[in-house]
Amino acid sequence: MNKAYQGLFKGYQLMKRLLIISLFLISLLILSGCGNNQATGQTIKDTATSTQQKCKNIEVPYEEQEEYLKTEYYTESVPYTDRECEAKPLVYKKEMELCQNRISGIFGVGDQKAKTSCKITNLDIESGIFSVRIGFNVVGGNQTLETTQNRFIYPQSSEIFNYEVDAKINSCYCFEQAPTKQVCRDVTKYKEVPRERQFTAYRPITKYKVERQCE
User: Fold this and answer.
1) Would you say 142 and 171 are in contact if contact means Cβ atoms under 8 Å apart?
2) In sequence order, what E strands does 12-143 have?
3) Environment class of residue 172 by beta-carbon count within 10 Å: exposed (0-12), middle (13-18) or buried (19+)?
4) In which domain, by residue range, is 65 found?
5) Is-contact 117 97, C-beta < 8 A?
6) Coil, strand or helix at 143
7) Taking Cα atoms as reference points, which of 100, 99, 98, 101 lies closest to residue 168?
8) Overall domain count for the chain
9) Strand, coil or helix: 155
10) Dist CA 106 CA 129 (whole Å)
11) What is the CATH number of the domain that holds 170?
């Protein structure tokens, strides 16, 4: 009976040892698993922290073509009619009618002075005052004897200018100055007139758009 009891006691001791060993091994496995899980969780947390990005919205400029009405200023040559007038002498004709030297008679009887005459004919359609300087070049030097006469002459009419002196002469002369009239005519001229016109043009403008940028 003691042998049977001893056998049971030995079996019980063996099972107790096996149970203790099993519990020890299970504890080691549990501790090992927890350690691995803790290390893995730390690694994931570190990876998430390291890969987290900082993002923000910023305004980015860009360019567009804007349509608008542009005004252009310029000048244009425009014709117009102007009236131009100028002074022109009347149309006339001059004729030397007479140039006679002094004639000496006998003992003063029949003496005649030196005479000259100049005829002016107004050929124009307007009348005017003609001025005539008439005279002689006298014998014996550079002396001249003359007079100035003014006569109003109508269109298509004539006047004779006479002059005489008691002197010996070499020659006669007659210098005339005709009146003037206003002759007008229409002429085409050009003047620069300011103009303006509008047309569609384009100009660059800067606009902004919101973009999300991450670092």
Assistant:
1) no
2) 55-89, 92-100, 114-122, 128-138
3) buried
4) 55-83+187-214
5) yes
6) coil
7) 101
8) 2
9) coil
10) 42
11) 2.60.40.10
Torsion over CA of 180, 184, 188 and 190, rounded to 10 degrees? 60
Q: Whole-model pTM?
A: 0.53
pLDDT digits (tens, 9 = 90+) for 16-66: 777 777 777 777 777 665 555 444 444 444 444 456 778 888 888 999 999
- Exposed, middle or buried: residue 35 (CB in 10 Å: 0-12, 13-18, 19+)? exposed
| Spatial distance between the Cα atoms of 50 and 183, rounded to a whole number of angstroms | 105
Q: How far apart are CA 108 and CA 166, in angstroms?
A: 12
Residue in 112, 119, 161, 165 with CA at minimum distance from that of residue 143: 165
179: nearest Cα among 153, 199, 161: 153
**Could you give the angle at the alpha carbon of 194 between the alpha carbons of 189 and 197, nearest 5°?**
130
